[in-house]
């Protein structure tokens, strides 16, 4: 296993057993949060998925409030960027890596 985050030392068996939950964390972070509490690997990716979700909510609130520029420029570009971050997170989880997402991955809400 290739661990990119020095804080997280997930076991190879943990990665193998919870890779699906880690991938799912970028689509529905709540499911791995409830179903794989014992997995450090799944919890790491659930944290990344939660931060991605919160960034998505914040971006959409701001782009809705700011007239015209927010609707036509900020919202679409920011949502595209967050979609790309979700793809990167899914690829990291599928590859068994604990690599933080660019820009937002350094935040930690869920203890893993």
Automatic annotation (TrEMBL):
Source taxon at top rank = Bacteria
Tell me yes or no: is Transmembrane helix among this UniProt entry's keywords: yes
Q: Which UniProt keywords apply?
A: Membrane, Transmembrane, Transmembrane helix
Q: Which residues cross the membrane?
A: 20-37, 49-74, 80-98
In its UniProt entry, what is this protein called?
A: DUF4870 domain-containing protein
| Biological classification of the source | Bacteria, Bacillati, Bacillota, Bacilli, Bacillales
